């Protein structure tokens, strides 16, 4: 009789477990909570004096959130050429770097990135470089990007495996700033 009672309760609770969201879905939902908001960030890795990020105001703007696509422009001072594009497909997230010139045309190095190898966790997703990236930028074939997000911060990170290349920028999600103008190539 005990086995039947256990089985009965197991069957009743099964739909609750089956409906639980996977890490990638929770990650995207957390980002969507910031849609329309902008935040200032700081590079947390050491920079050389001549680094293009040194001394510049860094701003991320969770500008566009569709059902499965989130676009986050990343401004470095007056340079509005970068947008992170996160796309949820079949439980995995694709990260692409959309780079534009000031006139809106594509940079010759654009749409590189990678897809998560698994559904990941709600607060962190890893993106190893995909074949498109290896073909476009051979030296970046060993890149791994990862993004973390929680109640207080968003970090974007890059590590080039087998080298000293490491970059990390952290944004304070507790201090919303004024929404910036559109990035290069956007009409709205």
From TrEMBL:
Signal peptide: 1-18
Keywords from the UniProt entry: Signal
Protein name per the record: Secreted protein
Biological classification of the source: Bacteria, Pseudomonadati, Bacteroidota, Cytophagia, Cytophagales
